[in-house]
Amino acid sequence: MEPLSLDRRRILLGVTGGIAAYKTAELVRRLRVAGAEVQVVMTEAATRFITPLTLQALSGRPVRTELWDTAAEAAMGHIELARWAERILVAPASADFLAKLRAGRADDLLTTLCLAADAPTAVAPAMNRCMWEHPATRENVAALQVRGVQVWGPDRGSQACGETGPGRMLEAAELHRCVIEWLQPGPLSGVDLLITAGPTREAIDPVRFLSNRSSGKMGYAVARAAAEAGATVTLVSGPCALEPPSKVKLVRVESASEMYTAVMDRAVEQAIFIGAAAVADYAPAASRPEKIKKDARTMRLELVKTPDILAAVAALEKRPFTVGFAAETDHLKQHARAKLERKGLDMIAANQVGGGLGFEAEENRLWVLWPEGERHLPTTSKLELARQLLALIVERYEAKNSVQDSR
Ligand code: C5P
Given 3.40.50.10300, 3.30.70.1530, 3.40.50.720, 3.40.50.2000, which CATH number is that of 192-288+298-405? Predict the structure, then answer.
């Protein structure tokens, strides 16, 4: 017998206040038929549109509605429930719920669970078209997407309020298809991927160092996109203020030489290596053990070149698919292609620095080059760009493997 497409997958299904909640009943039924375990959590407003009893009967589990329900909490506490969830889908998601999710509020059971859970989250918005088109909702949705929340729909059409336009929740069959696609193993599942990110710090003395403007945002976004695609990700990071993406193994380093060691210790076991760190090119020849006094009017600092981590990985006999970055202020493509060839890389992602782009910026754009081709990825958020870059890496990685397999 064919295994069910959602066999024992654990879905926490949030229901917020909206007339579209009647479609959620059909969605619960379909998810159950496909084999999923569905735990419904309703807001107080949702219970005014559809009864918990209906969703309890369809899901086969008591519906949770309150944070302060001591009997339910004793059976499975809300933190336990947050951990239980493999995926969170909120359908319908009201404008109010999207605002709360964006703000990180936790004033009822559903918002608390969304904040406490580590699980990938999707929302199926449903609301009046003016509410959907309001700048406040547009901003909330955009911010949630940047954070990685999937937004499914809404559809256009006639609305319960008598108006016509965007705001209808997707039909149950459509949401069911989205869930199945969402739970398929990613294209990199079972693939080990190592990535460097952030700046490095090269000590001058115990209190001073040389570094650069890298925020680590692009590298962290690529690490996150790789984890989303199912890869087992190790992130070797220089000092930066970012939270590591969930399910990513973080190795913290300070200097280029520490980064070199951390990477070379692991590189041969990896299928893919991405060098996104802004590694300092030079480090002080010797770091002084005591703080340098400011007595002299001038001082000289002797610098020596740091090891080129990316080139060293690319030169390994048994090497991973190797991807580099190139930040350039001029002749972007020519310099990047020269770097691709000089360092013997499989792919390079080049970005223009200066003019508000590149380091520390929220958005970016890239030229991606490989030996036989190139592609431009236009300006967008770093997370979206990272996902597009990763899709290209997967494409070229699979193409290279299939050529090697056919030899
Ligand atoms: O040669 P350049 O520094 O412009 O190359 C940038 C690329 O090389 C980036 O992918 C960066 O992570 C990597 N790199 C490195 N080790 C260095 C210098 C750069 O891995 N010492």
Answer: 3.40.50.10300
Flag whether the pTM goes above 0.70: yes
194 lines ligand 1 (CB under 6 A): no
Distances in Å between the Cα of 208 and the Cα atoms of 203, 278, 291, 321, 349 are 6, 18, 8, 36, 31
**Closest ligand 1 atom, residue 328 Cα:** 4
Are 229 and 187 contacting, i.e. CB atoms less than 8 angstroms apart? yes
277 lines ligand 1 (CB under 6 A): yes
Query: Which residue, by CA, sits nearest to atom 6 of ligand 1?
Result: 326
Number of other CB atoms surrounding residue 182 within 10 Å? 15
Domains of the chain by residue range: 10-183, 192-288+298-405
Q: Across the chain, what does the average pLDDT equal?
A: 94
Given 114, 161, 178, 240, the catalytic residue: 161
Q: Is 161 a catalytic residue?
A: yes
Ligand 1 atom nearest 256 alpha carbon: 21
* Residue-wise pLDDT tens digits, 314-341: 999 999 999 999 998 889 999 999 999 9
Token pair belonging to 18: 């909206």
Comparing 157 with 223, the larger pLDDT belongs to 223
The rounded Cα 56 to chain-centroid distance in angstroms is: 33
**Burial grade of 237 (CB within 10 A; 0-12, 13-18, 19 or more):** buried
Residues 6+ away with beta carbon under 8 Å from 130: 163
Q: What is the CA radius of gyration of the chain?
A: 25
Q: What strand order describes the sheet that includes 87-93?
A: 37-42, 10-15, 87-93, 121-125, 150-151
**The amino acid at 148:** G
CB 238 less than 6 A from any atom of ligand 1: no
At 74 the three-state DSSP class reads helix
